[in-house]
Amino acid sequence: MDLEFYEPAEAAALMRCTEAWLREGAASGRFPHVCWGKGKIIFTSEHIAEIARLREVPVHAGSSPQERLIGTRARRRLAPVSYQQP
Questions:
Q1: What average pLDDT does the segment 12-22 reach?
Q2: Taking burial as the number of CB atoms within 10 A of a residue's CB, which of 51, 59, 69, 79 is the most buried?
Q3: Global pTM?
Q4: d(Cα 14, Cα 17) in Å, to the nearest integer?
């Protein structure tokens, strides 16, 4: 068996996220996990890989990084600036 088991703090360190984010995702049913004993949350190596796949952001062919920015402030920052000479 090649599965490894991680407590939320260990999984969070491995994934470089917060333990609270992982616990909340598991408690709400968004993230796969197992419960042992009296509700102890455990993540396997397969669970961690699945969580990473679930959180991937697809990049569409032909899109530029500017197209992925959200919000009007970001769009204004990217707009070409033209300077008028006096």
A1: 95
A2: 51
A3: 0.65
A4: 8
